[in-house]
């Protein structure tokens, strides 16, 4: 029995070593009406009893025994399917990580370029020529708006910009 983090590779080995499925849950009525069985079409694999089997054990209801039987039978195909889904999701996660880091690197390149352009615009503001107007708009105002637009994004989250 595993405690803590599951070892899915070990779980896969256990699944592959088990009798191939599908497994079937059945109720036994002969010789008594207190047992349930998991098996294949041609083999009995496990029996689940209702009642109290030995001194010191707790009473197992018919419903609990039946539910345990169905659980084990369904787990034969359900657990390998879950392991497949876990692997698919892990692969998707790895792909998304790669996309994130590729896009992060590109964003940092753009961020660096924005910072270089902002610095250049700030130098341009130091010249008197930007106080002229073009079509009723001062060049200085256009440059200051460009600088403030890039500043509104906040500080860069990139490490090397």
Entry keywords:
161 residues; alpha+beta; two-stranded antiparallel ribbon; 5 strands
User: How do the helices and strands follow one another from N- to C-terminus?
Assistant: HEEEHEEH
Low-pLDDT regions: none
Mean pLDDT: 86
Q: What percent of residues are in strands?
A: 5-15%
Shape: rod-shaped
Main sheet specs: 3 strands, antiparallel
Strand order of the largest sheet: 1-2-3
Quickly count the helices. 3
Head-to-tail CA distance between termini: 50 Å
Structural class: alpha+beta
Number of strands: 5
Count of the separate structural domains: 1
Radius of gyration: 34 Å
Helix content: 40-55%
Q: How does this structure look, described?
A:
- The protein is of the alpha+beta class.
- It has one domain.
- The protein is 53% helix and 12% strand.
- The chain contains 3 helices and 5 strands; from the N terminus they run H-E-E-E-H-E-E-H.
- It has helices spanning 8-17, 62-124, 139-151; strands at residues 24-28, 35-39, 44-49, 133-134, 137-138.
- The strands form 2 sheets. A 3-stranded antiparallel beta sheet has the order 1-2-3, with helices on one face. A two-stranded antiparallel sheet has the order 4-5.
- Strand 1 and strand 2 form a beta hairpin.
- Helix 1 runs antiparallel to helix 2 (62-124) and helix 2 runs antiparallel to helix 3 (139-151).
- The radius of gyration is 34 Å and the shape is rod-shaped.
- It starts with 7 loop residues before the first helix and ends in a 10-residue tail after the last helix.
């Amino acid at each position: 029995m595993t405690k803590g983090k599951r070892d899915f590779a070990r779980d896969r080995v256990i699944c592959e070593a088990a009798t191939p499925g599908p497994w079937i849950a059945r109720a036994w009525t002969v010789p008594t009406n207190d047992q349930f069985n998991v098996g294949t079409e041609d083999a009995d694999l496990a029996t689940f009893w209702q009642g109290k089997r030995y001194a010191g054990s707790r009473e197992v209801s018919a419903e609990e025994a039946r539910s345990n039987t169905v659980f084990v039978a369904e787990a034969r195909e359900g657990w390998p399917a879950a392991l497949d889904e876990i692997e698919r999701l892990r692969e998707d996660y790895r792909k998304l990580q790669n996309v994130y880091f590729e896009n992060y690197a590109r964003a940092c390149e753009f961020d660096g370029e924005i910072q270089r352009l902002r610095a250049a615009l700030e130098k341009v503001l130091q010249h008197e020529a930007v106080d002229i107007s073009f079509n009723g708009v001062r060049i200085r105002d256009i440059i200051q708006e460009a600088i403030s637009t890039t500043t509104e994004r906040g500080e860069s989250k990139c490490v090397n910009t």
